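Fig. S4 source data, part A: sequence.
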Amino acid sequence: MYYNMSRILSISCLIIACMYSCKSPKARAPEKTTSGSFIEASVERNKLIYKQEKALIQELIKKDSLRDYISSESGFWYTISQKDSSASQQKPTLGDLIAFTYNVKDLKGNLIVSAKENGIQNYKVDQSNQDLISGIRDGIKLLSVGEQATFIFPSYKAYGYYGIEKILGTNVPITSDITLISINQN
């Protein structure tokens, strides 16, 4: 009898232990909830930065009476400074392999990175993972072989929040002289 009672008690304890150990864990409640205020503040900050940069760029364009600048649909300004009348007026399109040079300057004209330092860039239009800023990727498609243009990029089309380590700060608009050397159609 003692053996049966002990066995029943052991089985009962085992069943009770299994019932509690098999219980699924409760989900923790989040410690913090956000309402998107950080993103909203970031959007407002970026709008203000762009407005200030646009005013600087327009002032720069106004002072440069020797050139006519064109406002692009992509959000930057450019002027063609050298044309090759003997070359085709074909512009790069998706998949074309192009060769070009470019430099980077601040809005005061101070050289940040020279075309020599960058070397000749070989780029497959809109298909390469090459580390080019979006302004250059968009701007190069506006040129024909042999043309050189000066582009003015607001920071969001240039190096943006990250800048260039130890060379260019954050949110700095730039100018860039780009020369298209060749186009090999795909």
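Fig. S4 source data, part B ends here. Residues 67-184 form a domain with the Chitinase A; domain 3 fold (CATH 3.10.50.40).
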